[in-house]
Model the fold of this input.
Amino acid sequence: MLLGMTRRQLLYATLAAGAAPSVRAQSKRPNILFAIADDWGWPHAGAYGCTWVNTPAFDRVANEGILFANCFTSNPKCSPCRASILTGRNTWQLEEAVSHFGVFPAKWAVFPDLLEEAGYRVGYTGKGWGPGDYRAGGFSRNPAGPEYVKHTLKAPFRSMSNKDYAKNFEYFLEDREPGQPFCFWFGTHEPHRAFQDGAGAISGKRHQDVDVPAFYPDDETIRRDLADYAVESEWFDTHLGRILGTLERIGELDNTVVIVTSDHGMPFPRVKGQIYEYGFHLPLAVRWGGGRKGRTVEDFVNVRDFAPTILELAGVETPDSMTGRSLVDILESDGDGWIDPQRNRMLVGKERHDLGRPNDGGYPVRAIRTPEYLYVRNYEPDRWPAGNPETGYRNCDGSPTKSQLLRGFDKYYALSFGKRPAEELYRVDRDKDCVENLAGDPAHAEVKRALRTELQDRLEKDGDPRALGNGQVFDTYKYTGARRHAYSTWLEHSKL
Done:
């Protein structure tokens, strides 16, 4: 009879037989709380040493669980990253879903559906998968699950959503059967643009206290914009704290796997949508009862690892379509630092994000990140990486920072909006801002060659059409957003 069992059935049979307990061997299946902010960047949390973004709820999850120092997305834009999270696949393995405002094909299983089939109550509030068209791909509902949006509130600033995310979580809990395990996707719309100008100052933020990356000038306008971003990021953390309080009150916190992260970096030039450290490096903390608390793990993990991790913890068989690797071994370990030294490589890339180039072409990039280096391959260096100037650099949200950088055609403008060479190489352990390109340095020629070869080999094994000579297919995928090039919108924000 054991030969016919699935992995999930075998797990439950083992538990019933009184096998030795582990972090997975709970008396009941764990709940899942997946908390994801929209455009909240690394390292903007107290647990990472940031002093100007206050994140007590995230810090609590880290202090009572695990803080991950090296979590990455394979594509730093909303819908491609979220598709990778849901399917457990790199975005270049997702056909149309590689694109922002793309179609999400239902041919790949998503973890909320699999959990629901296994008896979990599933749902989401706020932002699930998107933007894009999931119905055209064959889904009957958002791939994150059924939406819970009953409760609203008056947000402290007009730029924030009026959704009461934490109260909607309570509404979701009312919908489950007694004792039924649940998986809830809590996704805020914050800190996505736009921000209310001056929100930081109104909230008591001192613009002098923010950290300005080296790819920006030390400018008061930019500092104030960063302070406004901090307030929006803290709104996510406020609701996370309320949700943790609800779980604690109903006695479910220690039987809930709490995963807290974001989809990509902050909505600023050279960050969101760009293949640099601030764009694809994510905050991540995971809490679950049991194991040693307050650990920091250096292993490289990717958002595509979340789905197989969640399924394994729930005792649900992981489909072969998922190419991510479960993190359960890390969760079960008591160690700090590097748990598995082999987790020391990460692939990143993008195709088309937003319109704004001739023939609506994308800006294809692939990159490989190691503990020391970031090697970037720009396949179309003659194209503008953030979109064309005449269409307003559309792959960059309008903002005071963007407007300030566009006032002068200096090195800071070039870093965010200028054309880029075919190859870039950064020593990220010393240059996390990625401002010193070493690709042309003869002393780094061998490193560049080795990483170029390794990147190509890994992408070919991934079945990436770009690496296999069929990259043109990515520009044929449907764009489902507004087709205007938004030049007037750019003028409105630029104030030139």
Q: What stands out?
A: The chain is about 25% helix and 15% strand. The radius of gyration is 22 Å. Confidence is low (pLDDT under 50) at residues 1-26, 486-496. The first helix runs from residue 7 to 16.
